[in-house]
Amino acid sequence: MIHADDAGLSESENRATIECLKKGLVSSYSIMVPCRGFQEIALFAKENPTYDHGIHLTLTCEWHGHRFGPVSPSEEVASLVDENGHFYKTRQELKEHAKPDEVRKELNAQLEMALEFGLRPSHIDSHMYSVGANPEFFEIYRELGKQYGLPVFINKKLLKDVGLQPDKVLKQNDFVVEHAHLATFEHFKKGHLKTFYLDAIENLPIGLNVLLVHPAPDNAEMKAITVNHPNFGSKWRQMDYETLTSEELRATLVENNVRLVSWKEISKIQQVQNRV
């Protein structure tokens, strides 16, 4: 699965995501409900239901030049926001301040807003994997999947990266994606993002693999959003965008007999397994 995060972040992010979907090289994407581009990408999702989309649950806002906050009234989730009513920039700040009941309230509100708009998401995932900032938040994330009948994206490496120990938070019946591929800042600094993606595809282990990407152009809008934040910044996203619209990537997928899948397919498999 080639999965595009952060749809809804901006108009530019939306346009790039849509182009990558239409070219057939992105097989799933997820939508950020609290962001200014939500309605645009949500309308696209409604009008193009064949493209697999999930909800990118959002509890943090890492940007300096593009601030956003909860869809709930700020006074009802006061532990999630700074003095200006915006989400905290880091998982650590979220961990230090957020109350679990307010995390639950806000994540429920984001899912309800998406459903009320008419979306039919295939899965739930998490921006910056902030649901892993605290074991209680992660349990809420898991419970939301059960509440809404949707698979949640769980990966052991991502859990470790955000400070959780998989053996302590995972349960026997959790659906875990064993192989998730996410480029690092070192790959970006060396200009090796395309190389990372092509190498990952050429050396995929057997089974389900998820390649996480963030396509967008390096234009004025994205530069303003990601100012002073090169990690997953506009130049990074431009590299992703160029790779994901390239014939070289398509050829690499074909040459390595890689079949792209979506969360819709994963969900159907889970439903069958649950009935057995």
TrEMBL record:
Stored Pfam families: YdjC
Keyword annotations of the record: Carbohydrate metabolism, Hydrolase, Magnesium, Metal-binding, Transferase
UniProt-recorded Gene Ontology molecular function terms: deacetylase activity; hydrolase activity; metal ion binding; transferase activity
Gene3D superfamilies for the chain: Glycoside hydrolase/deacetylase (3.20.20.370)
Needed co-factor(s): Mg(2+)
Gene Ontology terms: biological process: carbohydrate metabolic process
Protein name per its UniProtKB record: Cellobiose phosphotransferase system YdjC-like protein
Organism field: Flagellimonas lutaonensis
